[in-house]
């Protein structure tokens, strides 16, 4: 998995009136991320240890500018994270990550996409969830920082997976989950709401469907059918999510910002499609925060709850 603030640069900016459901820790907190106070387990690693000269030439400036740091303070669910430190692009790698080379190129791709203008998304609702909505049982912060982070990450990955080859990392990750007898929760499974729980598991299915090998994908499908009595419903929901995402073999290293803008616009539309099919029973707005705020001032009265993706 990548970083960019909880796997996809979702940075919550909570407005005062945005309480909904129970406030839960979804496993990654500000305190769990590396700081100068808890960096004793960080060590810099040369990118030359992982890539050939031709691979580094293809990455261009990033091969020279990105600092690779192995960081043992990253939580088990986070394989890596892209961030800036004093203006220097950093690729943090969890020493326990199953495929460090994949994590490094993955984080470099996120840095490059950010440089091309990959949008941060505003996610908001304008009213309290109705009684019939599973969102009523979920903290909006957990919803955005968990499920929507992973979905936006998955959409981003669909544009560079062909180049990065995520199968080895994803396969090992999900084999470990199955050995433990439980898939990592994005926060919805803890609510006690069956529909929310099913979405939590369905997102896992979408991840392994798009980023795992056929063999491990089938093993995860069998695991879900054995473990959950409504496993068939979960499979249908996961497949519906996958159908919203249109993978594209994009060479971002050879793309200018105008070309990238079209790709990013399509990605936002895919997120909109997913929000329509996950059955929230209400409208959840998602859009490029820069575009929204440049076209009109922020109306705090309009946004009861907002997340910045």
UniProtKB/TrEMBL annotation:
It comes from the Eukaryota. This is Uncharacterized protein. It comes from Guillardia theta (strain CCMP2712).
